[in-house]
Amino acid sequence: MYGVYPHPFLFPSPTLPSCIDSSQVGTITLIALTGLLIFMFFLLVATANAIIVSVLMSLAAAGGFLAIFFACLVAVYIEQYQLVIFAISRLSSQQLLEL
After folding, report:
1. What are the b/e assignments for 10-31, b being 16+ CB within 10 Å?
2. Origin, by domain of life (predicted)?
C-alpha cells in the first residue's frame, strides 16, 4: 500500500517548533550563511597569503643562491684578469731585458 515509504503516522513530516516563527527561519539561515561566507573569505585570504609568502620566500632563497653564484663567478674573472696581467707584464719585462 505505501511501498517503500514509511508509514505517515510513525514518521510524521517535520514541522517547526512552536517557539520559531516561519519568518525567523529565513533570518537564521541568512545569519548562518553570512557567517559561512565570512569564514570562507578569511580562508581564501589566508590561502592566498600563504601562497604569496611561499613564492616570495622561494624567490628570496633563489636570489641568495644566485648572489653567491655570481660572487664566485666575479672572483673567478678577477683571478683570470690578474693572471693575464701578470703574464703580460712578465713577458713584456723579459722583452725589455733582452733589448
Report:
1. eeeeeeeeeeeeeeeeeeeeee
2. Eukaryota
| Residue numbers of the domain that contains 89 | 22-94
Asked whether residue 4 is assigned to any structural domain, the reply reads no
**Inside any domain, residue 46:** yes
Residue 84 lies in a domain: yes
In a domain, 1, yes or no: no
pLDDT tens-digit profile, the chain (99 residues): 555 555 656 666 666 666 767 667 788 888 999 999 999 999 999 999 999 999 999 999 999 899 999 999 999 999 999 999 999 988 888 776 766
Is residue 25 within 8 Å of 16, Cβ to Cβ? yes
Measured CA to CA, the distance from residue 41 to residue 27 in angstroms comes to 21
What's the CA gap between 58 and 48, in Å, rounded? 15
From first CA to last CA, the distance across the chain in angstroms is: 128
